[in-house]
Amino acid sequence: MVIVIGGMIGLGKTTVAEILAEQLGSQVFYESVDDNPILPLFYTSSKEEIEAKRYPFLLQLYFLNSRFKTIKDALQHENNIIDRSIYEDWYFAKRNRDLGRISDLEFEMYEKLLKNMMEELTGLPKKAPDLMVYLKGSFETVLKRIQLRGRSYELDQSLVDYYKFLWENYDDWVLHHYKASKVVMIDMDKYDVRNASDRHEVIQLITQNL
User: Fold this and answer.
1) What pTM was estimated for this model as a whole?
2) pLDDT, the chain, mean
3) Active-site residue set
4) Domains in the chain, please, with CATH?
């Protein structure tokens, strides 16, 4: 069984993935952030630099490639947890296209590559997860949790505006467009996984749907 943990940054995806893996005796495959050479450039460059050097498109290609490798690695084992899904990468790419940061042609190429990567082939393990655990929350909760992470560059005003843009359509995408697996939606306005009792309740909500 492969489970993906999705949702806005700051809501506790990595923590939920780790406590769920401990509960199930499985492994976590993490989102590639700290070793991502493009992400700091994307976060800190001027609008003109971002436009000229096409960082949003490069970033989405980087995530697509690393996420696909994660899927292949996870499928070699019986049970695994993936920190964010490749399907959410498409959502991020689309929202950057909506902002004009990714061109229509770049997005078309991205979609064709993703479709080719994710095509299910007879005789090979399926690539879709068995369950998505989607962490949702108010934008106020998102910002509060990001502040607690202590990464100062994540709270630049232009980034806060970008987070708001992503957050506005995230729930709608999961509810009406994501079709790859069953979804368990957890309201992180109600839970703080730094708290032991909240962690226990969240794990119960997930395991009831396995």
Assistant:
1) 0.87
2) 89
3) 83
4) 2-207 (3.40.50.300)
